[in-house]
Amino acid sequence: MHHLVILGGGYGGLRVIQRLLADKEIEDFKITLVEREAYHSLKTEFYALAAGTVADRHLRIPFPDDSRLNLVCDTIKDIHLDEKEVTLKSGNSLTYDDLLIGLGCEDKHHGVPGAEEKTLSIQSMRRARKTNSIIQNVPHGGKIAIVGGGLSGVETASELRESREDLNIRLYDRGDNILSMFPPKLYNYVTDWFIENNVTIINRANITKVDWKTLYNHEEPEEFDAIIWTAGVQPNKLVRSLAEKHGFETDRMGRVETTKYHHLPDYENVFLVGDCAASEHAPSAQLAEAQGDNIALLLSKKWRGEKYPEKMPKMKLKGVLGSLGKKHGFGLMGERQLTGRVPRVLKSGVLWMYKHHSG
Predict the structure, then answer these.
(1) Which of 29, 138, 246, 355 has its CA 20 to 30 A from that of 348?
(2) How far is CA 84 from CA 42, 78, 94, in A?
């Protein structure tokens, strides 16, 4: 019997599970999923959980109910590639024939003193809940700093504005403008929205230190009631440790380089998916799912004794949609730039379809 162990029940891991369980051509296999939570989480919406506009029950999806799938709710302690073994925090261990590593990402603090220990996060459901708890206890007229003007920072700031109209929200970005990865039409539209809704943008910021409720920009301190960090991500620390131990090459974000078949060099039975795997594309749920489709195809062929295809299917990503509260948004679909209500409606529709299909 083929035994696949999947580390992490995120977008990539869940997609592999769904594809393999639905494949009628393979049999005699089992999947063990190791995940801290008993459910799949909609990580792309954690900003809304942190802001308090969505309850966490709306961001949970149960894993498939199938006798071939065994869910182990535990934390991974270490991965032993040569022994084909995964050790868990509980003291138990798992052996595998094939391994899929989809442990996601965590905040990257760029070596800023105090940033890791003294800021809030939206990178996990538990941390987003904690962020929400602190934000909702900020007194009337309190000050909130959000560090990082990328997609996560922008969505967090806009959703927080919708949740708490009384707050003084300041968005810090190191570039000349927020959303630097988007075309000018889009970042100018979002900038105008923030101006109209009293969110202050601080461009060309240089955060040099973080203390409890104090942010140092260009060494100048400013007091806040809460500081939320959204200034970049990096692969899970276990994956970074694995890369260092075995000398695997990584990209500029620290994601591990894989072969065209999504497995580690010299370890054809160890696949990487999502924020752990190097790619020409930026990290996203779409990318993780596309990689998951490919990996499920490869495992199906492997278990049936067939050769891998000479050329892998090209991963086609549909674009990026961002929200500005519940009524406005922005997006890039191919070459088409969208602003206003249409991209927000599209994003809501995509989320509904995902929940309906996965649930």
Answers:
(1) 138
(2) 30, 11, 8
Distance CA 234, CA 121 (A): 14
Q: Side chain identity at 326, as an amino acid letter?
A: K
| Residue 358 banded pLDDT, cuts 50, 70, 90 | confident
For the chain, the domains span 2-36+73-106+234-303, 109-231
Could you give the maximum distance between any two Cα atoms of the chain, in Å?
A: 64
Q: How many CA atoms lie within 13 A of 318 on its CB side?
A: 11
pLDDT tens figures, 78-92: 999 999 999 999 999
How far is CA 58 from each of CA 28, 32, 127, 128, 238, rounded to the nearest angstrom?
35, 25, 16, 14, 29
Q: What is the Cα–Cα distance from 94 to 32, expressed in whole angstroms?
A: 9
Report the alpha-carbon distance of residue 150 to residue 275 in Å, rounded.
Answer: 16
- In CATH terms, the fold of domain 109-231 is FAD/NAD(P)-binding domain (3.50.50)
Let me know if 65 is exposed, middle or buried by CB neighbors in 10 A (0-12, 13-18, 19+).
Answer: exposed
Q: Which residues of 205-217 are buried (b: 16+ CB within 10 A; e: fewer)?
A: bebeebeeeebbb
Topology match between the domains 2-36+73-106+234-303 and 109-231: yes
Cα dihedral across residues 127, 132, 133, 139: positive or negative: positive
Per-residue confidence (pLDDT) for residue 359, from 0 to 100: 59
- The two structure tokens encoding residue 159: 């959703």
Q: Which of the listed CATH numbers 3.20.20.70, 2.30.110.10, 3.40.50.2020, 3.50.50.60 matches domain 2-36+73-106+234-303?
A: 3.50.50.60
pLDDT tens-digit series, residues 37-55: 999 999 999 999 999 999 9
